[in-house]
Amino acid sequence: MYTLHHYDREDGAKARPFKPLDNGNRMGLLLLGVGALCIGVYLAFFFAA
């Protein structure tokens, strides 16, 4: 998980000067996915407890 995120962050940093829109879109999707994952885990623990 950490290695995947680190790879995406380095790839985004390299692609930023060339494709700012594409990089921003991918970062937005990544943040949305991480947020949804956190909410899902929180709800799972909430209902389990």
- Overall mean confidence score, pLDDT: 70
Number of helices: 2
- Roughly what percent helix? over 70%
> What best-fitting shape do the alpha-carbon axes yield?
rod-shaped
What ranges have pLDDT less than 50 throughout 5 or more consecutive residues?
1-5
Characterize the main sheet: none
Write the layout of secondary structure elements.
Layout: H1 2-15, H2 20-48
Q: What can you tell me about this protein's structure?
A:
The protein has 49 residues and is mostly helical. The protein has one domain. 88% of the residues lie in helices and 0% in strands. The chain is built from two helices and no strands. It is rod-shaped. The two termini are 26 Å apart. Keywords: Membrane, Transmembrane, Transmembrane helix.
Q: What's the short story on this structure?
A:
This protein is mostly helical and about 50 residues long. Helix content is about 90%, strand content about 0%.
Defining traits:
mainly alpha; 49 residues; 2 helices
